[in-house]
Amino acid sequence: MSEEVDVLIVGAGPIGLACGIECEKANLNYVIVDKGCLVNSLYNYPRNMTFFSTSDRLEIGGVPFISHNPKPTRPEALEYYRRVASSWSLNTHLYEQVEKVKKEKDIFQIQSSKRTYQAKNLIIATGFYDLPYMLNAPGEDLPKVKHYYDEPHPYYDMDVAVVGAANSAVDVALEVYRKGAKSVTMVIREKEINPRVKYWVKPDIDNRIAEGSITAYFESNITNIEEHSIDIKTPGKQITISNDFVLAMTGYQPDFSFLKHVGVKIGDDEFKTPVYHENTMETNIEGVYLAGVICGGLKTNAWFIENSREHAEMIVKAITDK
């Protein structure tokens, strides 16, 4: 038997929760479905991560976010969003993946890994952190290759390769180096460390590379991964170095396949920006709305929690106005 709702929200991140809160305010029957845990992307952030935003910019639903630090930490954020979900008694169905969506007349028939739904409206707030860019190198499926970084301790006295040149790669390289990795090698496609790396961190990584504490191969990529070594193609030569772990900090991308499955039109611009109405967040499919980071396509730095919280209000207003 199908569960009937006014709104089905895909994604239990901060913006998905904000959409649920607005549904609560509007007395709409809704459910928030997520294939992982509550705020799953935040849970997968490095354990010692500190947010760029201050706590007040991460608040939703009028619930105060009090941090003991100038910028909140990952554990504080997890605690905060648990408190938000509990305070609003949000209807969340976690560890449940949406598998099929089909629109019949004005109703969406939705099949998840656990049950079926009939929904009048669909909000997609899936973010982008679940699909890493792959290295596409033989051996990438070995357990030693990680696309998510947790903490430095497992890499003590290990030969570690970090792939990437942006903030996450730089942070990881510096942390595992300072926490006792035997060697740290950065493998970077570009000619230099990303100029947009945090201004207070960039001199640090530049100096560590210059002094040889961290080895960097620019305009290079990993071509093969073995249990105890990796092959690197670098200008003018191919080298093999000892390696225990590959930390691929290569970035993440939205789930375009799900958007296409639903029927959402994807733009032909370089960022593959999904098509939606800026005032209502409604897509080319009537009744399907986008919220949060997913709106930027591959331009994943366009939308954050702090500047997309308003999407929830816009969407629910558009739904109730109908």
> What is the radius of gyration?
22 Å
Distance between the termini: 27 Å
Q: What is the total number of structural domains?
A: 2
Low-confidence spans: pLDDT under 50, at least 5 residues?
none
> Given the C-alpha coordinates, what overall shape results?
elongated
CATH architectural grouping of the largest domain: 3-Layer(bba) Sandwich
Structural class based on helices, strands and sheet pairing: alpha/beta
Q: Largest sheet, described in full?
A: 7 strands, mixed
* Element string (H = helix, E = strand): EHEHHEEEEEEEHEHEEEEEEHEHH
What's the rounded overall pLDDT mean? 95
Strand content: 15-25%
Instruction: Using the coordinates above, name the CATH class of the largest domain.
Output: Alpha Beta
Question: Can you summarize this structure?
Answer:
With 322 residues, the chain is an alpha/beta fold.
What are the salient characteristics of this protein?
25% strand; 8 helices; FAD/NAD(P)-binding domain; 7-stranded mixed sheet; alpha/beta; single chain; 5-stranded parallel sheet; 322 residues; 2 domains
Overview of the molecule:
The chain is α/β, with parallel strands linked by helices and 322 residues long. The chain has two domains: 3-131 and 252-321, FAD/NAD(P)-binding domain (3-Layer(bba) Sandwich), CATH 3.50.50.60; 134-248, FAD/NAD(P)-binding domain. 23% of the residues lie in helices and 25% in strands. It has eight helices and 17 strands. The chain has helices at residues 14-25, 40-43, 74-87, 167-178, 202-211, 256-262, 305-308, 310-321; strands at residues 3-10, 30-33, 92-93, 98-104, 107-112, 116-124, 131-132, 145-146, 159-163, 183-187, 215-217, 221-225, 229-234, 237-242, 245-248, 252-253, 288-290. Strands 1, 2, 3, 4, 5, 6 and 17 form a seven-stranded mixed sheet that branches. A hairpin with a 2-residue loop joins β13 (229-234) and β14. α1 runs parallel beside α8. The chain is elongated and about 60 Å long. The mean pLDDT is 95.
